[in-house]
Amino acid sequence: MTRGSLHRRALVAVAATFALLAAAGTASATVNSTSIVVDAKQRTITAMLSDNTIRGVAPLDRNPLTRQWLHDGKAEFSVDGDKAEEFTGYIKIGYLVGYPATFGGRIKLSYSTPSFGFNLTDNIPGLGFNGSLIPTVTGELEVGFGPGVKSVEVASGKISGKNGFISIVNAIATVTGVVGPATVQPYVTVVSDSGDTVTTLGPTSDV
User: Fold this and answer.
1) What pLDDT does 173 receive?
2) The domain containing residue 67 runs over which residues?
3) What is the CATH number of the domain that holds 24?
4) What does DSSP say about strands 163-176 and 10-21: parallel, antiparallel, or unpaired?
5) N or C: which end of the chain has fewer CB within 10 A?
6) Nearest-CA neighbor of 74 among 134, 21, 129, 133?
């Protein structure tokens, strides 16, 4: 593949810095969105986005077809009900990226995220966050010339206990090769080990 053909691809790249934290409460947080699901054990599982900020910035490559933004916020989960402290599952973080048109009708998705291999319990019984944030999407997809919307999952990690959150600090994302402005909407999905799933969508931002 030539350098010129690469420039004609729409490129979504996400490189993020994540801090994994566990917390007994989030009283001081500004809640942007929340959604719930009740599992087979009658536990209420909540996915939440809070303290969410997306800031469009000038692209480092100075390409007029590049859109770049920084993202701060918290991806939270909580579980209420009988034996909530025994909850285990996964949390996923991503974006919906809307675009008016692409060059070449394809989008190439790539990013890198840090990996963590430790348990954060904060000495609170039943509260913990286990696992690694790992890349979950890569490759080139046929999406047509637009307009369109693409879901980009940027990280996932195993969770356990009643509640906790991932703090997202200065996640850097770019969309290159897209004609016109891009619209970005963050999301958080919580999935129990038994398959119960809940997703919450944050506010949209034009970049």
Assistant:
1) 78
2) 3-206
3) 2.60.40.1650
4) antiparallel
5) N
6) 21
